[in-house]
Amino acid sequence: MLISCPPAGRKLANEAAGAQDDGVDPELIDRVAGSAGLTPAEAARVVQDVLAWYREPVEDYVRRRHAHHHLYGRRNPEAFELIAAELAGRLVAAPPLSQRQLRRIVYG
Question: How does pLDDT run across 33-78, given as a tens digit for each residue?
């Protein structure tokens, strides 16, 4: 039997306790730890990494993806079309942005 929480009234080891104090729901950490076979500290790190990925501001995401598409030779109309589709498909979708709005994010 896998026990992912200490008995009531006891504290976790310093590493795990510190990882869980960053505002992440302890139930989510326990669920990830149990389903993936991770320690609570490892699960907390995974959850924090995933949350950081989805908390990336829209402007930063658009700039990063624009640079990526340009690196692979896509021109702006195609790149902006792809970025708009990517934004619509994200877990927490950004509001619909026109090519003009995307261009303003990238170029100011």
Answer: 999 999 999 999 999 999 888 889 999 999 999 999 999 999 999 9
Determine if residue 37 is left, alpha or beta; phi over 0 gives left, psi from -120 to 50 gives alpha, anything else beta. left
Split into its structural domains, the chain has a count of 2
How many whole angstroms separate alpha carbon 42 and alpha carbon 16? 8
Can you give the residue range of the structural domain that contains 92? 58-107
- The answer to whether residues 63 and 102 belong to one domain is yes
Contact yes or no for 85/42 (Cβ under 8 A):
no
Tell me the pTM: 0.61
